[in-house]
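Box 4.2: Ligand-aware structure prediction
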Amino acid sequence: MGGWERNIRRVVPYTPGEQPQDPGIIKLNTNENPYPPSPTFMHAVREWDGKGLRLYPDPSAGVLVDAIAAYHGLQPGQVFVGVGSDDVLAMSFLTFFNSSKPILFPDITYSFYDVWAELFRIPYERLKLAEDLSIVPSDYLRENGGIIFPNPNAPTGIVMGSDAIESILEHNRDVVVIVDEAYVDFGASSVLPLIEKYENLLVVRTFSKSRSLAGLRIGYAMGSAVLIKYLNDVKFSFNSYTMDQPTVCLGAKAMEDEEYFQQTLRKIIDTREWAKKELCALGFQCTDSRANFIFAKHRSCPGERLYDVLRRAGIYVRHFDQDRIRDHLRISVGTQEEMGILVRFLKDHLSSI
Ligand code: PMP
């Protein structure tokens, strides 16, 4: 090892789900929305005029921030935007988690949390989920340097009720509590109203799932103006121009077309419930997922084996080689037709897997 290598910041990076390029693949592995972005958004894409690209983008991403704030009935100063919620969350870890006490998050959750904690050298403790894979709210009342969890949790899809989240907030007024609501639109209730009561609560959302825009990369956080100011101070100490011009303008359009948005959510929720019932009939146990994915375990067939067989059949799902969930598959909810193909395949092949 060269001497210079001793000073390297070494990290084990997060592994994102595969993005196969073959259009024939039924892609149920990264929780993308199977439906296209809204008609208003698509129209704006076609009308987009690139002449203004000679200029730097608006560093405050004002048009986008205003659209998000108006949609949620907030002041623009209560909204922060980033390049996907991964960017928003990374900035939030850097800004808010600076204690020598450990931050707390569940042991089975979004696997980027420990990567950021390691990257920024933030001490952390992963708190064990209950036997039924739900988060145990009372575990989060101990002393800590900050708290983060998704609601619904990933990859289980299980929801924590707003009362339980409020009890966590009540007991944690001295640290920042981040609720990652990446999947909230698919049937969970949001704690957004609580930002008026708890100035240390940050609610994080994304355009990647419910708004069908994983490819555009927009995430946002909402909280008290003081919390958002701290976040912006760190962001502007890092890179002023994370949000490019087309993303800012087109992203603002994605907050329109409420009817299309609601219709798409309804279709995904209906398909999720249909697919869950079919999978149960085939010997799977599913968590009560309120996200755009199903978390399922077969009564006899090992998870990795199922994952491999499906993959060879051109159906990509996600498998996590982790204690307690090794036999589960996380199956993103595709179109009704795609889920029908998955169910048909399992009906035909499960007995021989
Ligand atoms: N939070 C959770 C819980 C997620 O599952 C994901 C998706 N991988 C994200 C945040 C990040 O999503 P994005 O960066 O696309 O907004």
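In the box above, the bound molecule is 4'-deoxy-4'-aminopyridoxal-5'-phosphate. The chain has ten helices and twelve strands.
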